[in-house]
Amino acid sequence: MQIYWTKINKIIEETPEIKTFMLDCPEGFTWEEGAHTHFALEGFNAGDKPNRGLIRHMSISTLPHENSIGITTRIREQCSEFKAILRNLEVGNEIALFKTHSNVPLKREGKNIYLLSSGVGLATFRPLVLDYFESADNVNQIHSLNIDSSKDFLFTNIFKSVPDKKFTSQFVDNRKDYYEEVKKLAADKDGLFYVVGSDEFLVQNIEVLREQGIKPEQIMLDKHEQQRPKFLSHI
After folding, report:
1. Where does the secretion signal sit in this chain (predicted)?
2. CATH 3.40.50.80 fits 111-232, yes or no
3. What is the signed CA dihedral for 2, 8, 22, 79, rounded to 10 degrees?
4. What residue segments make up the domains of the chain, in order of their start?
């Protein structure tokens, strides 16, 4: 397994609780839209075994041509040891990346695509939308629906409706409105539904989509192939 050590070159405060850490691109490090990586803090591999408390699964919120690896995450006042360390990191600090993979690349099958996310889950979708803006080949249109109860919506400069590009974006701040909208979107029985958020959020969305007649193969999850049945089989 190759570990890429790299440095933070910029820290962007997206909202009061959400930061994006921009990292230098190490030589040989590649990724595609919808990718996630293992993001590790200094000292994670200092002992005989890796310290899992210093490692997190993180989505990459940028595309390769942006020349920086963006890691966007929410850091609340009350947070884990990992997030507490992250909060105090500065430009120039080193972190490690390894095991990078994309479960949710943009499918170009001539269909409507629906991006369903909760809070900072939107970071996974930012590169997909940018990729679509660069080339809409074999994508009919994209609709993004995000729920964030904080009302500090993320990436509003990108997630805004652009009718000319057949892209619509919607933000809601409560579950009732959110699931009503999901039901409306599921009227498209041929669409592709991407879902990103907590495991509980995934299960609830799958339940609603399946009740509306959406098939498992139309639902894309940011999970390894072997994990999909756990979410899709019990509905």
Report:
1. none
2. yes
3. 90
4. 4-102, 111-232
CATH number of 4-102: 2.40.30.10
Beta carbons of 69 and 61 less than 8 angstroms apart: no
Tell me how far apart the alpha carbons of residues 83 and 41 are, in angstroms, rounded to a whole number: 10
Say if CB 83 and CB 27 are below 8 A apart.
Answer: no
Distance CA 152, CA 168 (A): 19
- The set of residues, in sequence order, having a beta carbon less than 8 Å from that of 186 and lying 6+ positions away, is 193, 208, 209, 212, 213, 214
Can you give the three-state secondary structure of 151-170, one letter per residue? Answer: CCCCCCCCCCCEHHHCEEEE
Per-residue pLDDT of the chain (235 residues; tens, 9 = 90+): 899 999 999 999 999 999 999 999 999 999 999 999 999 999 999 988 889 999 999 999 999 999 999 999 999 988 898 999 999 999 999 999 999 999 999 999 999 999 999 999 999 999 999 999 999 999 999 999 999 998 899 999 999 999 999 999 999 999 999 999 999 999 999 999 999 999 999 999 999 999 999 999 999 998 888 888 888 875 5
Asked whether the beta carbons of 11 and 91 are under 8 A apart, the reply is yes
CA distance 21 to 72: 6
